[in-house]
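Weekly structure sync, notes
Attendees: PL, DS, HV (note-taker this week)

Item 1: SRPBCC family protein
DS walked through the input record. Source organism listed as Streptomyces bangladeshensis. Sequence as pasted into the shared doc:
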Amino acid sequence: MASTSVSRTVPASPQKVWDLIGGFDSLPDWLPYIPESTALKGGRVRKLANPDGDVIVERLVAFNEAERHYTYAILEAPFPVTGYLSTLRVHPVDGRDDVAEVQWSGRFTPDGVSDTEAEELFAGIYADGLDALHQALSA
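Item 1 (cont.): predicted structure, written out as tokens:
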């Protein structure tokens, strides 16, 4: 099993960040790669579309409002992995109430690619996503 994790400090309080990203169906609010999200099964499943028209279906497997994190599994996607499980987490920064650290991590089994290739793919997705989040919060 392979894994990767990316963190960024963003210019907003942990609660403000969580208010933007904490909804399982909120990716289009901050992530340009996902312009469309449809909530299914009472909000426990999201069907996403990217600009190329690819469909990604994900299921919420854990959610913790108080600790500001959720974990999801990919059910269907054009990625070369299986068993994908990812967590998006907002951390406070000691001594600061005007910034937060956001961590996006995942573990998965590469399918037809090396561990390194799969890790680099998701590290790039996470980094681009967190850069977009930083930009959204800076606007």
